[in-house]
User: Fold Phosphosulfolactate synthase from Niastella soli.
Amino acid sequence: MNFNLTQIPDRIKKPRNSGITMVMDKGLSIPEAQNMMSVGHPHIDIVKLGFGTSFVTPNLREKIEVYKSYDIPVYFGGTLFEAFLIRNQFNDYISVCKEYDISYMEVSDGSINIPHAEKCGYIEKLAKHGTVLSEVGSKDAAHIIPPYKWIELMSAELKAGSSYVIAEAREAGNVGIYRGSGEVREGLVQEILTQIPGEKILWEAPQKAQQLYFIELLGCNVNLGNIAPTEVIPLETMRIGLRGDTFNLFLNGNGQH
Amino acid sequence: MNFNLTQIPDRIKKPRNSGITMVMDKGLSIPEAQNMMSVGHPHIDIVKLGFGTSFVTPNLREKIEVYKSYDIPVYFGGTLFEAFLIRNQFNDYISVCKEYDISYMEVSDGSINIPHAEKCGYIEKLAKHGTVLSEVGSKDAAHIIPPYKWIELMSAELKAGSSYVIAEAREAGNVGIYRGSGEVREGLVQEILTQIPGEKILWEAPQKAQQLYFIELLGCNVNLGNIAPTEVIPLETMRIGLRGDTFNLFLNGNGQH
Amino acid sequence: MNFNLTQIPDRIKKPRNSGITMVMDKGLSIPEAQNMMSVGHPHIDIVKLGFGTSFVTPNLREKIEVYKSYDIPVYFGGTLFEAFLIRNQFNDYISVCKEYDISYMEVSDGSINIPHAEKCGYIEKLAKHGTVLSEVGSKDAAHIIPPYKWIELMSAELKAGSSYVIAEAREAGNVGIYRGSGEVREGLVQEILTQIPGEKILWEAPQKAQQLYFIELLGCNVNLGNIAPTEVIPLETMRIGLRGDTFNLFLNGNGQH
Assistant:
């Protein structure tokens, strides 16, 4: 860090399993990816190529190389996994990941309905090829999953081999663990945390108020995802109490986690 | 496209008259324009230099050259046309277009009142110098145009020589064919489409929900405009069903247009 | 300017004391800062490194050099000043400014409570080291300061040595002189202006409607701050009447200030 300031909370150092910032790249050019990494490299842990954007983005291979040069794992958005699956092209999906040297894979069912045992089967299979993140929560705002069910699903997916379970929010942050307004379903989040270890959950939190909620609840080393490229530095600043919203959180032993 | 996926709807290939993506550049630097084109070149059809931004943007000529190198036509936002017109500098406008080698021109009356016959006269005159796009709809939220009038205006402007009529939305997407909230005036849109061929209309649709509405209504090859540079890839992904919102739209013969 | 257009209001030329555009950089990379300056250099007057972002941004010194090469003064966001202060590291703050060759400094109390005489003391001290901007208004939405108090605070701070007083809005534009919705507290603004010269106030106005309000109230040479990098050119265009919102403002002697 650039200056000497006391009472800055300890961020776990990279490579880390907790305190993760996952960025959503929804079509950056090569120079834009390089620009992001040139300031973001100490703070970014994983990059997701959002939904199916990797299908239509030129220079995909070169961009993945940029991230690899910073030791940043990259994965395809869950919507792409689902697009292969619904077309009966699951094996093609594995081939594409190999072809692009992608070792992180998301298993999700945000847009399709599959029996949960089958979903866990995909997690098991892909866990043999690399690191699996699996997502819980529908992209359909009308499809409400009760808290006990979130817990059941997350437990089963971790058992099946997921390294993290992702709490769905969509790019906009208005479904899954959030209401249509973007407000956190606090009761849901807190009930999940009674059963699932916080460090195994990656909370999609594209909106600032959402990031703030989780930092206040779980501390500076909470796992946050779907962060926009321009918000990497502001988020890191908020994590350590140097943004107005969290200014007092870590002072004098406040909010230690 | 990067992978092999079945059931992807057919996008018309560039150069195309339908299925157009028009981007609004509101002051990009040369490298930013190059970055956008390096990933956007297969998907972008036209670039608009938004409202009067071209007046205050340094290196304008060089930026137009960047777009030309990708065979992308560029035009000045309608507000600039109106700014010349209200100052009795219509001939200067033609000179400026020639000076910058601009052959697409927008004729609009979003901020000024001119008799419609006079507006059509400008369309006729400019159509001798290049391709004309003319815009219908006021930027003044309080000025409501009834549907039959939209149809009359659009018909007359196409007859006068417009290659496309643009349905006004402003950069924010909150006037014209939208309510102040950004919601589509669906009745208006559907009534317009009973009389004006969809492929002659360029719908300004800066918001994602607006883009989604038109893709659902008119298919993947609808003409959409006022797209932000960072939304080119996400929009293309949504057009072909690889974003959650349109995931099911093109599967099993759904939504074929 | 690129074309010849009559009836364009006179913007004061740089370097200027009035008509200032202050940009908030919240973590740009070196190439992004260069891109912004390559189009923004005729329009940008001051760059603020927002809140504590400078603490976690790599290549900070090189970025400050980029701005210096365009003769643009840079300062650290007030939250960083407050972070040093609450840790009893005020002298370290002065050292850091010297170390980075920063001669503009913000004194604020948006996140901490300090007696106003003490705040004015800091202004006096820092004014010996460079140019001071001091900010009035809390970042706490629940903490309402009545208009007469805004005037008292601003007067005292200007007397203590501030070159400008900044009217707080936060990055989002939803506190201080704005309601939670972003709407301007018009009565407050107008009462402030009965006592404090407009040219000594830098209005934080990140939202377009806020920028419009101040341009309509105070003319094209109003001081505006917390402008996003991508909004520099659109703001300049709005200032001179080449955006729909201000199209008629400067025509035929309208709105001369």
Remarks:
- The first strand of chain A starts at residue 21 and ends at 25.
- Chain A has a mean pLDDT of 95.
- Chain A has ten helices and eight strands.
- The radius of gyration of chain A is 18 Å.
